[in-house]
Design brief:
With 730 residues, the chain is of the alpha+beta class. It folds into four domains: 70 residues, Alpha-Beta Plaits (2-Layer Sandwich); 259 residues, no CATH class; 88 residues, Distorted Sandwich (Calcium-transporting ATPase, cytoplasmic transduction domain A), CATH 2.70.150; 116 residues, 3-Layer(aba) Sandwich (Calcium-transporting ATPase, cytoplasmic domain N), CATH 3.40.1110.10. It is 49% helix and 19% strand. It has 25 helices and 26 strands. It has a seven-stranded mixed β-sheet, sandwiched between helices. A six-stranded antiparallel β-sheet has the order 6-5-7-13-8-11, with no helix packed on it. Strand 5 and strand 6 form a beta hairpin. The radius of gyration is 34 Å and the shape is elongated. The two termini are 39 Å apart.
């Protein structure tokens, strides 16, 4: 299955979103999720059966247009919508003056007095409505097309209302011209103009608000520079980013930005990577260190090799990550989706029943038409459709700016429900930068020879313990020995053959498994009591050495644990390390529960037991050795400061390995769900109150609603949801 994000044109409300989503999901081999705010569809499809051209065709069959694969580009486009809105605002005021000015005692324009010159009055309003039909042609066209495709949306409701008002008023105008002056008060051309104008105004506000929600994504795109300095045989050459090729050597001077992802080949400096890690403190970089596009060079001259360009860069991966996350459906959003699916057809039926009811009760026909049109115009599926995705996108963007990358809307919703957080030890609660603290060498080798053997085998390991030996080898500038038949037995240790001798490196479980006599038990107890992790060295089935490796607890780990506990969340440390070392670290951090000496399968089983007891689990690990545990938890958080973020399988990535971001994630989740619930309440409450009012339920008490007021109310409804969602940006 292949994944792609398509850009969709023409969606204006939740009914549009549901139409496209349902139609795509009906196709064999296609799973799709549509985002109204970003106007995108995240599609997973069987590439052996379906092509991108097929997907584009499916979108068109649903009544919309696919613009191909989604690409977030730097904003350069300007439009004239604001100018048109201002011009039509003056024209709308003039229309309302002509049609309603006399009601509030304003002077009547000569020859446009509706009582003295009904023909002039009617023809003037008809002519004034024509520019609005041109201005709102996109809405009318969209509404008709969606009805033809059997997927009516907000545009369809407005189109029916506008055309009904237009045709009814047009027929009455003809009758007035023929001499029936009594129908002059049954002209509703002003309804046509105000409905279209306020629809356009609402669309403009809606679009600008959506742009506000996408600011974090835009900021990510904007941080990469337009040009780069390429090192050539003739010297420096300034080129556009598009001209940079993989393998080129680029130059970055103080004050400049890194142009593409790469590796430093010359020089050293400090880089600011706050845009991706949320950490404003500059990071020291030297030869062989990785650099990320958009980083700001603070104080040094460096040269670096271009490695990841364009769509393969870290920034592009992050943008895709955020966009894909916003395309997923939060469970709470499905409430609005279900309601939206039946909303538009339901409103059309209610409007028709209103028309029939008024006629049946022998009300004047113009009242029946007016009430039916008002029902169509006042209904607002937009508010329902925007309630969840707007809040999700704002929150996703806010989290991304803090270096917290959430991979799905469901994760963002569920984070505040967590009652138990399980931490891995090495590389999570500790830095994972282990140092060799003790070498008990009872072999025929010198300490240097012994550590060279161990380092050569550990070179193939990804476990944090291996870094202690890799760092030792680099510090002593030792060459690797040839290792044959390397094996990594998860939970136990490593094995390999060097110079025809079999070596085993691992913990006490490895010794027991291999049934090897252990003469180091007392020393192990002493070292573990002081916080050491233990590595036994076995040569040809005999223990020849014991190595103690010590780690350092993260500076903010204790403070973060205390904040988590204050929120009533239980903390657990789950470690493959020995019991005493694990207890010592857990005790210093005041963690509630410790489970040590765990194999990966045992960690996974422990998490499953907690879930069976009804707990909602968050697992925090290093993203490599803890993959099964991360997958088994309700929410998996990976401490991952690397650049290969797309390959990580956890639900959340903490790009600067800052544990305090866990607390921030929970807080963002709480605020997001609160805003979404408020949005859904106002969206439902608005429609619950306004639709009966439009039908005329309060007409006996002389409380009525006109199409003009209905269109204004509809805009206010959407605006309420939009402004409420934007509160999350603060």
């Amino acid at each position: 299955m292949k994944k792609i994000i398509l850009k969709i044109e023409g969606m204006s409300c939740s009914a549009c979103q549901n139409r496209v989503e349902k139609y795509l999901n009906k196709q064999e081999g296609v799973t799709a999720s549509v985002n109204l705010v970003l106007a995108t569809a995240s599609v997973e499809y069987d590439e052996t059966k379906i092509t991108i051209e097929d997907l584009n065709h499916f979108v068109e069959e649903s009544g919309y247009k696919s613009l191909g694969e989604y690409k977030e580009e730097k904003e350069t486009k300007k439009d004239n919508q604001k100018i048109l809105l201002i011009l039509y605002a003056f024209l709308t005021i003039f229309v309302m003056y002509v049609s309603m000015g006399h009601m509030i005692g304003l002077p009547v324009i000569p020859y446009l007095n509706m009582m003295k010159y009904p023909v002039n009055y009617g023809i003037c309003l008809f002519l004034l409505s024509i520019p609005y039909l041109i201005y709102g042609f996109d809405i009318l066209k969209s509404g008709i097309i969606k009805i033809i495709h059997k997927g009516p949306n907000m545009d369809s409701l407005v189109t029916i209302g506008v055309l009904a008002s237009l045709f009814y008023s047009g027929i009455n105008l003809i009758k007035i011209i023929l001499g029936n002056d009594n129908l002059v008060e049954q002209l509703y051309f002003e309804s046509v103009t105000t409905i279209i104008y306020f629809m356009k105004l609402g669309r403009y506000i809606d679009q600008k608000s959506k742009e506000k929600t996408k600011e974090a994504i835009q900021e990510l795109v904007q941080i990469t520079p337009e040009s780069a300095l390429i090192k050539t045989k003739k010297g420096e050459k300034e080129s556009t980013i598009d001209e940079v090729k993989e393998g080129d050597i680029l130059i970055c001077k103080p004050g400049m930005k890194i142009a593409v992802d790469g590796t430093i080949t010359f020089g050293k400096t400090h880089l600011e990577e706050a845009f991706i890690t949320g950490e404003s403190i500059p990071i020291k970089k030297k030869i062989q260190d990785k650099v990320i596009a958009g980083s700001i060079n603070i104080d040094g001259y460096i040269e670096y090799r271009a490695e990841k360009i364009g769509p393969n860069s870290t920034i592009s991966e992050i943008v895709r990550l955020v966009v894909e996350a916003t395309n997923t459906k939060a469970p709470i959003g499905k409430v609005a989706d279900k309601a939206s699916g039946i909303f538009v057809p339901g409103i059309m039926i209610i409007s028709l029943l209103t028309l029939i009811g008024y006629i049946f009760l022998k009300h004047p026909f113009h009242e029946a038409i007016l009430s039916a049109v008002t029902v169509l115009v006042v209904a607002c599926p937009c508010a329902l459709g925007l309630a969840t995705p707007l809040a999700i996108i704002v929150s996703e963007g806010k989290a991304a700016k803090k270096g917290i990358f959430v991979k799905s809307s469901e994760t963002l919703e569920n984070a505040h429900k967590v009652d138990t957080i399980v931490f891995d030890k090495t590389g999570t609660l500790t830095y994972g930068n282990l140092k060799i603290s003790k070498v008990q060498n009872d072999s025929s080798y010198t300490d240097k020879e012994l550590l060279k053997i161990i380092s050569s085998i550990e070179e193939y390991s990804t476990h944090p313990v291996a870094t202690a030996f890799k760092n030792w080898r680099k510090e002593h500038n030792e060459k690797l020995l040839e290792v044959k038949d390397f094996k990594n037995e998860t939970g136990y240790g490593l094995s390999g053959i060097i110079q025809n001798k079999q070596y085993l490196l691992g913990n006490n479980k490895l010794i027991k498994k291999e049934k090897i006599t252990n003469t180091y038990q007392e020393l192990e107890k002493h070292l573990t009591k002081n916080g050491n992790s233990i590595i036994y060295v076995v040569e040809d089935k005999k223990v020849i050495a014991l190595i103690g490796v010590k780690d350092i607890i993260r500076t903010n780990a204790k403070e973060t644990i205390q904040k988590i506990k204050k929120q009533g969340i239980k903390t657990v440390m789950l470690s493959g390390d020995n019991q005493k070392t694990a207890i010592q670290i857990a005790s210093s951090l005041k963690i509630d529960e410790v489970v040590a000496d765990c194999l990966p399968k045992e960690k996974e089983s422990y998490l499953k037991e907690l879930k069976q007891k009804g707990h909602t689990i968050m697992m925090v690990g290093d993203g490599i050795n803890d993959a099964p545990s991360l997958a088994s938890s309700d929410i998996g958080i990976s401490m991952n400061s690397g650049t290969d973020i797309a390959a990580n399988s956890s639900d959340v990535l903490l790009m600067n390995d800052d544990l305090s971001k866990i607390v921030e994630l929970i807080q963002i989740s709480e605020k997001t769900i609160k805003i979404i619930k408020e949005n859904l309440f106002w969206a439902f409450f608005y429609n619950f109150c306004m639709i009966p009012l439009a039908i005329g339920i309060l007409k006996p008490w002389s409380i009525t609603l006109s199409p003009m007021i209905a269109s204004i109310s509809m805009v206010i409804s959407s605006l309420t949801v939009i402004l409420n969602s934007l509160r999350l940006r603060k």
